[in-house]
Specification:
Elements (H helix, E strand, L loop, with lengths): L3 E4 L5 H11 L17 E8 L2 E11 L2 E9 L8 H15 L4 E7 L3 H9 L3 E11 L2 E10 L2
Parallel strand pairs: 4-5
Antiparallel strand pairs: 1-2, 2-3, 3-4, 5-7, 6-7
């Protein structure tokens, strides 16, 4: 599967909101996704023929970033899209001279945990009851960049 990775633009938000609804029990609204167009965050979309196949977003803070969401369309999974999105985000974090990236992942989400571990993230702890629907703990994962 051939795809391009682009910085998220306003035109991508309706498709990203639909992908959120497919992927998460508490999806972000299209309005909430406007965060990715602000200076406080950055996001990238994997596209094929103008169609959004997946996306990743990161909240920015002085010296660090937090990966907020990563999702890939069910029919496009297992094609390297998620790994390419993480790699692009790591490039951006390095270019912005961030010292580290962190994220939370459901303890039951073995594919996500494997993906992040393969990209150099390590488990740093657990957030009890972090997720609500369904209730579940989160693993906190961190990658040091500098």
């Amino acid at each position: 599967m051939k795809f391009d990775i682009l910085q998220v633009e306003r035109a991508h938000l309706p498709e990203i909101a639909a992908l959120e609804a497919l992927s998460f029990s508490e999806p972000w609204s299209e309005n909430a996704l406007n965060l990715f167009l602000s200076g406080d965050a950055v996001a990238f979309a994997a596209t094929e023929g103008g169609r959004v196949l997946g996306y990743i977003g990161m909240l920015l803070a002085p010296g660090e970033g937090q990966i907020l969401n990563l999702a890939v369309l069910p029919e496009a999974r297992r094609n390297g899209i998620a790994k390419a999105l993480v790699a692009r985000l790591l490039e951006e974090a390095t270019a912005r001279e961030l010292g580290s990236l962190s994220l939370e992942a459901r303890v039951s989400n073995a594919p996500a945990i494997r993906l992040y571990e393969s990209c150099g993230f390590a488990v740093a702890g657990t957030r009890k009851g972090f997720y609500r629907h369904p209730a579940e703990d989160a693993l906190v994962m961190i990658k040091t960049l500098s």
